[in-house]
């Protein structure tokens, strides 16, 4: 049975405080990751507001804001949003589902989904991507980061090592699969990056930059 939004919300509510403590900023990102983020910022910073879709406790929204972007963040987990508001009281962070964003069509010049689609089952992913594109203005840029590959990863053991008993799965996708879905959602590809795992990572990491047609 496909993983539900309630399951994901419950898991992240449980781990929110530790997550915010262990990942307070972009120190987990590599120089290549940060270069891609800089390329995204250069395209959207002066064009309008930017949405951090799946912002967690706000570390990436902080990164964008510190580089001059006008950022709004949304996340499914109320406790992650609460942690983000404590850490970044100047940022606009709101509880919302990526499948049902509380914004009008074409609201944002840029949308970033930094590892925030990875818990979305395959059958629900096209709808989530379509929703991200819906709130992006024509000509706006969408940046999506995810673990590259195929198959489902059970995260219970990983979180268990940090003392959390959670039920949570992560879905890997190939870059080609994700690119095709984004094209179908109304975008054209601008750039892609796939890098080898570094540090404690076990999988290739992928980023796609696309532009709404």
From TrEMBL:
All copies of domain Methyltransferase, residue ranges: 50-140
Keywords assigned by UniProt, alphabetized: Methyltransferase, S-adenosyl-L-methionine, Transferase
Domain of life: Bacteria
Pfam families on file: Methyltransf_25 (PF13649)
Class of the enzyme per the UniProt entry, highest EC level: transferase
Enzyme Commission code(s) on record: 2.1.-.-
GO molecular function (one): methyltransferase activity
GO BP: methylation
Protein name in UniProt: Class I SAM-dependent methyltransferase
């Amino acid at each position: 049975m496909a993983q539900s939004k309630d399951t994901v919300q419950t898991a992240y509510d449980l781990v929110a405080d530790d997550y915010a403590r262990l990942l307070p900023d972009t120190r987990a990102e590599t120089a290549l990751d940060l270069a891609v983020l800089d390329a995204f910022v250069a395209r959207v910073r002066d064009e309008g507001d930017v949405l951090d879709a799946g912002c967690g406790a706000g570390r990436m929204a902080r990164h964008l804001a510190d580089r001059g972007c006008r950022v709004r963040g949304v996340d499914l987990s109320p406790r992650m949003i609460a942690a983000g508001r404590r850490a970044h009281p100047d940022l606009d962070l709101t509880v919302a589902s990526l499948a049902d964003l509380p914004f009008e069509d074409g609201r944002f010049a840029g949308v970033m989904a930094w590892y925030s689609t990875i818990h979305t089952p395959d059958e629900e992913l096209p709808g989530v991507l379509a929703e991200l594109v819906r709130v992006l203005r024509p000509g706006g840029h969408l940046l999506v980061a995810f673990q590259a590959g195929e198959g489902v990863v059970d995260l219970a053991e990983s979180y268990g090592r940090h003392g959390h008993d959670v039920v949570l799965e992560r879905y890997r996708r190939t870059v080609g699969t994700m690119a095709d879905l984004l094209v179908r959602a109304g975008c054209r590809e601008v750039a892609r990056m796939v890098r080898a795992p570094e540090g404690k990572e076990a999988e290739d990491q992928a980023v796609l930059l696309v532009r709404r047609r």
